[in-house]
Task: structure prediction
Amino acid sequence: MCVGLSAKVVSVKDDTAVIDAGGAQREISAGILDELEPGDYVMVHAGVAIAKISASDEEEADDIMGELL
Amino acid sequence: MNEAMKKARDIITGYSGRPVRIMEVCGTHTHEIFRLGIRKLVPENVEIISGPGCPVCVTAVGFIDEACWLALEKDCVICTFGDLIKVPGTKLSLAGARAMGAAIKPVYSPLDAVEIAGQTPDRQVVFLAVGFETTTPSACLAVKKARELGLENFSVLTANKTMPNAYKALVGSADAFIYPGHVNAITGNAVCRQLCEEQGVSGVVAGFTASELLTALATAIRLLEKGEPFFRNCYPRVVKDEGNPGAIKLMNEVMEPCDSEWRGLGLIPMSGMKLREEFAPYDARLKFSMPKIEGKPNPACRCGEVLQGKCRPSDCKVFGKVCTPLHPVGACMVSDEGACSAYYQYAGLV
Ligand code: SF4
Result:
């Protein structure tokens, strides 16, 4: 139940967004994220977008490992 | 493999310091660390232990009994995350109740349960609200939605839990925590930072992909080598320091803290969430005047010790024999995110 789904926002209307996760589209709640726009990537849990995703995991790993001495 | 991953792997495999214990708090981390074969990478002096971060596993036996009571005595339609259906209660699981004619519906989101209530106005629909800060906002949205729609046949049975007091209860059980990324995505990092600064508790926030888990583990191991307490956010692409203010506001609007019973860990003060008085009409316990129901866990099950990293699933006498994913004795064997289930599925990788 806790597995998050990362997905791309296709459209937003009021507090509802349509997301695309690997080709499958689904309506989710965008009620707890401000300023969601089509093209944003989000983390989805139990039908609700809980956070925006700001980079790829590879970019993130490069940054963190680059700083680690 | 790129440079960053090579470096992470070298740090992990090359660790030669004192023996250390690293606890992955989150059940999804337990599962992914097994599945990706990361346990095979760590040297003997690094022990990876599983914590209590699977909401299904820490759901008290009495909660399942309460849900069965609503289903069988009050004829409610029970909507639940699918993982809860096989969790044993004192006498029955929800699957058992279903075999006796109860209406048990698995849903992906609490909002789906509201929809079901809208479609079946002649039935009382109850959503089983389990989960940590990650899933609690969705239950709060569902309650608000039901109120907005004027639905009088929707309520929730709450067992929502919050991590901060559980972290405090676990202090001392590991040298470093791998904090659950998606909990911190909601709560932010203040509690973990404070634990580090005030109590010397070390930890890293981790994501869920192979590179995120390797990065977080390598960071923890390198910083453990240095010997100073540390906190690092290794999942900044999703976890912001302030968390998700909209979600926090919503949770505080709909729910308030309460004491909560954790399977295996007992009652942890102020580690749960219940509906505020304003939302009392959506509280299934009040709505159906539920009597006090106390569950009795199976005495053979050592989930409590497993969830605190005090024993491994394979130390439990019934593991893999009487207790299997098809016939679970304890909650840790039910959910994919449970430590016993992960050990069972990936036994060859231990
Ligand atoms: S193997 Fe089964 S009975 Fe033993 S601790 Fe795990 S869930 Fe409980």
In short: The beta strands of chain A are 5-13, 16-21, 24-29, 41-45, 48-53. Residues B 300-303, 306, 313, 316, 318-319, 323, 329-330, 332-333, 340 surround iron/sulfur cluster (CB under 6 Å).
